[in-house]
Amino acid sequence: MADLRKEIEKRRTFAIISHPDAGKTTLTEKFLLYGGAINLAGSVKGKATARHAVSDWMEIEKERGISVTSSVLQFNYDGYCINILDTPGHQDFSEDTYRTLMAADSAVMVIDGSKGVEAQTRKLFKVCVMRHIPIFTFINKMDRDANDTFDLLDEIEKELGIATCPINWPIGSGKNFKGVYDRNKKEVMLYSDTQKGTKEGEEKILSIDDDSLLAEIGEENYEKLLEEIELLDGASAEFDMDLVSKGELSPVFFGSALTNFGVETFLKHFLQMTYSPLPRRSNEGEKDPFDEDFSAFVFKIQANMNKNHRDRIAFMRICSGKFTAGMEVTHVQGGNKKIKLSQPQQMMAQERKIIEEAYAGDIIGVFDPGIFSIGDTITTAAKPFEFEGIPTFAPEHFARVRQLDTMKRKQFVKGITQIAQEGAIQIFQEYGMGMEEIIVGVVGVLQFDVLKYRLENEYNVEIRLENLPHEYIRWIENKDIDIDKLTGTSDMKKIQDLKGNPLLIFVNEWSVGMTLDRNEGLELAEFGKN
Ligand code: G4P
Questions:
Q1: Where would I find the Tr-type G domain in this sequence (predicted)?
Q2: pTM listed for this prediction
Q3: C-alpha 84 to ligand 1 mean position (Å)
Q4: Residue 287, H or E segment
Q5: Does 384 appear as a known binding residue?
Q6: What's the CA gap between 25 and 444, in Å, rounded?
C-alpha cells in the first residue's frame, strides 16, 4: 500500500480566511497559476462569470451576483496535491463558512496591510483556534501604503491572541515598497511587479551584505531595515514548528498578491511547514489517515444545485484511506446502512468533474437523496465508528417566522425542518411552546432570503420574517438548572431547540455578562455540541 501512503502524504488541505477585499481571491488565483491549473490569472476572479457558473444553482445568486455556497479547488504544485477550501465573504457568509473550516487541516489568513485585523477575519480565526489548526498569515497589498509592520504584528497578537513570527520582513510599502527580507536566508528579494499575471519573470535576490543593496533600496530604507532586523531578532517570538502545528504561533509573510510578489515564496514555505492529513478523533479513538479503511464525514450539504431535480450534494472530507467510485460504504448515522456513494464529484480549478478515486485529505461531493446530515460518518471499516461531531455555530441574526397561509402547515413544517437539517438555518421555538412560534437563527443575513425563496419555490409556502434585535446566543451547559427560575436582563429571551434543549438569546454581550452574574453557577457556551 505504498501508493496509498504516497498519495496521502502529498496532500495539503487548507482554507483561506480573510475579510472581504483583503485579496483572498487574488491570492487563490495566483496559487492556481503556479499549479498550472489556470493559464491566466484573472479567471477565478470574474465573480460574474467563471466562478459564478460553478455554483449557478439559484436565482438568488443570479440576481445578486454572488455565490451562496463555498467550494473546493484542487490542483498540483511541486509534487503536492493541494485542496483549497473557499470560505465565502460578505453577505453570503453563513454557518457553512464555519463548517468548511472543520474540513481544513490548516488556514491561511490574508490581511490587508493597510487595514490590519478586520471583523470577519476575527470571527473565522476563532473557529481555527478552537480547532488548534496551524494558521499562516499573509499580509497583502504591500504595494499600497501599509500600516507600520510592528503595529500590524502587534495587532494580530493582541486582537487574535496568537504569537507571530515573521518569516520575511517588508522594506517600505506603497510607492516606496522595495521588497522583502528573508530572515532565514538573510537575503532581500527585490520588488518588481513584472510578474503580474505570469509566473515567469525575474526575481532579483541580493544578500544583506551585498554592496549593491544600498543603491537598490536607497539609504533610508537600508538604514531602517538594519535597525528593524536588529529589533526583530531581539523582540519577536522564535520560530517553533511545534507551536505552529498547535496553532499557537503564526508564521507571517508579506507580499502583494496583485503583482504576484512574494506569493510563490509563501506557498513554498507554507507547504513545507504544514503536514499531510493528520489523524482525526472519533468515538473509537484517533483514526489514522493511512488506514486502509476509507472513512469520511459530511461537513456541508448543498441543496438544489439543479432546480429540476431537487437534488442535494453532500460534501465530505475524506479522513482515511482511498475512495473509489461505486464502492459500498456504511453510513453510520443512517443505522449502519450499506450505501453506494453516487456521482462523486470534485472541483478541479473551476470545473466540476466526476471522479474515480480520491484520498484522505480530499473533499468529494456526492449525490444525496436526502439521507445525510451534517457531521455524519461514512466508512468501509468493519467496525463502524463516528467522527467527533461538528459544533453548531452561534447564529448572529434571529427572526420570527410567520406563515401566511395557515392551511399549509404541513408543508411549512416539512420545508423548514428540511432546510434546517441541511444546516442552512437553525430553528428554535419560544421556550415552552411548540412549532406554532418558530424562531430562525442564521449566521449571515442572506440565509433569511434563501429560506424565504426556498420555502416559496420548493414547498409552495409563503412566509413573513419579523427580525428580532437579538444577536447573541448561548447554550446552557448545566443539565439540572430550572429554566423557569433563571433571571436575566429584560432583553433576554428563553428559547429551545427542536430537541428541547434550552438556550438564551440576548441583544448585546453586556446582557450575557449580567445574566451570568445574576445566576450563580450558570454555565453558558458559545458553540453548541451536536
Ligand atoms: P477578496 O477575495 O478577499 O474579497 O479580495 P479580492 O482578491 O477580490 O481583492 C479585492 C481587491 O483588492 C481587488 O480590487 C484586487 O484587485 C485588489 N487586490 C488584491 N490584492 C492586491 C494587492 O496585493 N495589491 C493591490 N494594490 N490590490 C490588491 P478591485 O478593484 O475590487 O477588483 P478588480 O477590479 O481589480 O478585480
A1: 9-278
A2: 0.86
A3: 19
A4: strand 285-287
A5: no
A6: 20
